[in-house]
Amino acid sequence: MLAPQHYAGASELLINGGFEEGTAGWSTNAGQIDSVTAPLHGGSQAARFTGSGQPTTQFAYQVINVQAASNYELSGWVAAPASGVSRVFLRVSWFDSSGSLVLSADSPWLAQPDGAFHPLATGAMVSPAAAQQARASLLIQADSPFTIHLDDFAFSGPSYVPPPPSTPPPQPTPPPQVSPTATPQPPGKTPGPLPTTTRTPRPGSTPKATTPAMGNTEPDSFPQLINGGLELRSDGTPYAWHKQGGEIGTVTDHRTEGARGLVLTSDTTATKWAFETVSIQPGGYYEASVEALAGAGSESAFLRLSWYANGDGSGQAIASIDSLDSVKQAAGAFHRLTSGPIQAPAEANTVKLRLMLRPASGDPAAAYFDDAQLGSTQPAPGETVRVSGRAPASVAEEASLAELRAPDGLVPGAATGATLANVKPSRPGADEPTASGGQGRHDWGILLTIGIAFATIAVIAGHGLWQRHHARKARADDL
Fold first, then answer.
1. Which residue has the higher pLDDT, 272 or 428?
2. Cβ-count burial of 298 within 10 angstroms (0-12 exposed, 13-18 middle, 19+ buried)?
3. H or E element: which one contains 397?
4. Does 423 score more than 50 pLDDT?
5. CB-based burial, 152-183: b 16+ in 10 Å, e otherwise
6. What pLDDT digit, counting tens, does each position of 53-98 carry?
7. Alpha-carbon distance 308 to 272, whole Å?
8. Nearest 5°: CA angle at 156, between 153 and 160?
C-alpha cells in the first residue's frame, strides 16, 4: 500500500518530489510553500504548506506533459493537524491541447489527521484519450489558518513523447496530356466540338461523409468518484454523470472551481437529480459534499446518498440518506453541503451520489453544483456517525423521494431507528407522499371501509329489532 505501482515504461515525472531541492518545481494557487528540515518522512528536507483558509480550497501542484490513454498514479506523504483542516487529498486534472480541463480524479481523503505522516494515493488511473498535460495537486480544504507538511511525492507513468513531424504527402504526377483526334467529316462539313459524355453516378456509388464516433463509453460504476469538477463529455454533459428527470448541462457563469459547473433544470413539480455511481466497501465509512446553489424557481437543492447491493447500481435502493442541510433559493449564493460521516449498509456494494433539485412549482427551475466529492473516512473517537436506514418496500424510490435517515447521536455499528429526511411539504393536489412514508393518502380508504362495516352491522341489528317488535305486536293483536 505504501509503495506506488510502477508500470512497464513508467518514469518518475515530478520535479523534486522529495523536496530535497527546496520547493523547486512546485507552485500554489494560494498560501505559501517552503522547505523545512523537520518533520520528515525521508531524506533531509520536506515541505511546509501554510495558508489562511481563504480561499477555502488551496493546493500545491506541478504541471506535467503526459501521454494519452496511458497508466499513471500520484502518491505522497502528508502530515496534517488534528484540527483546522477539514479535508486533505490528491487530485490529478487532465488537460487537452487547448488547455481545457478534460477530466479530474481524486484520491481518498486523509483519514488520520494527527500530525504524523500518512500516505495518500490516487491508485492506478488511465489518462483520457484527449489528455496532453496533467496537473498533479495536493488539495487542502480549510476555513481557518493551517499548516501541513509534505514529503516523498511521486507521479509515475510514461514520459511524454512528442509526435513525429508530419510530412506532406507526395504530390501525384499528372498524366501526360493526349490531344484528341478529330473525327473525319464529310466534304463540305465544318468540324464541330467533340461529344461530351456525362457519367450518371450509380445509386450508392458516392461515398458518404462520416463523423467519427466520440469516446463517450464509460462503465456503469466507477471505483471512486471522478470528475467532481463536472467537466465535459463530447456531447456537452459532464462525463460520468447522468440524470433522473429534467436536463443536465454545464455552465461557466455559475461555478466555484475549474472551468465549468453543472446545471440541473426542471419544468415540472417532480424532484430531479444528477447522479454518479461509485463502488464502495460494505459497511465502510464515507462522507460526501458538494457546492450547491438553488437558482430561480427552485425550492431547495441538497445532496443524497443512495446505497445499492448490485455492483452496477441497478435495482431497488437499499437505503438513502441526505445532506445535513439544504440550500434555499433565498441564499442566492453557493453553499457547501455535506453528509457528515456515514456508515454504508453491510450489504451495499455501490452508492449513487445524487445532486438534488426540488422545484417550487411546475414553472422552470434550476440548481447549480460544483466540486462534488465522495471519499472514505475514519470517524474520530466519539464523533457522531449517521447510519442509512432501510426504506420500506412499499415506498417507491423514484416516486416518493422520502428516503430514510437515521437519527443523530449514533455510534458506529449501533442499531438505529429510522425517520424520514427531506420530505417535501404536501401542496394541494400534489401527488407526493406524506411524512408517513407515502401511506397517509390511503387512510381515508381504511376509514371508509371501517365505517361501512359499522353501518352494515347497525342496519342488520336494527332490522332484527324491528322484526321482533313486529312479531310481539302481531301476537298482542291475536290475543
1. 272
2. buried
3. helix 397-400
4. no
5. bbbbbbbebeeeeeeeeeeeeeeeeeeeeeee
6. 888 889 999 999 999 999 999 999 999 998 889 899 999 999 988 8
7. 19
8. 125
Q: What CA–CA distance (Å, rounded) separates 425 from 477?
A: 67
Higher pLDDT, 253 or 204: 253
The answer to whether the beta carbons of residues 39 and 79 sit under 8 Å apart is yes
End-to-end CA distance of the chain: 108
Question: What is the sign of the dihedral through the CA atoms of 460, 463, 467 and 473?
Answer: positive
Which CATH number is correct for 242-425, 2.40.110.10, 3.40.50.11540, 2.60.120.260, 1.10.1020.10?
2.60.120.260
Rounded Cα gap, residues 405 and 323, in angstroms? 10
CA 296 to chain centre: 23
What would the CATH number be for the domain defined by 11-157? 2.60.120.260
429, pLDDT greater than 50: no
Measured distance CA(436)–CA(18) in Å, rounded: 58
Mean pLDDT of the chain: 77
Residue 475, classed as helix, strand or coil, is helix
DSSP type of residue 449: H
The reply to whether 11-157 and 242-425 are identical in fold is yes
370 neighbors 257 (Cβ within 8 angstroms):
yes
Domain limits of the chain? Answer: 11-157, 242-425
Mean pLDDT throughout 233-253?
84
The model carries a pTM of 0.51
Contact 419, 404 (CB under 8 A): yes
- Of residues 413 and 368, more confidence is placed in 368
167-179 pLDDT, tens per residue?
666 666 665 555 5
Handedness of CA 341, 347, 350, 353 (dihedral sign): negative
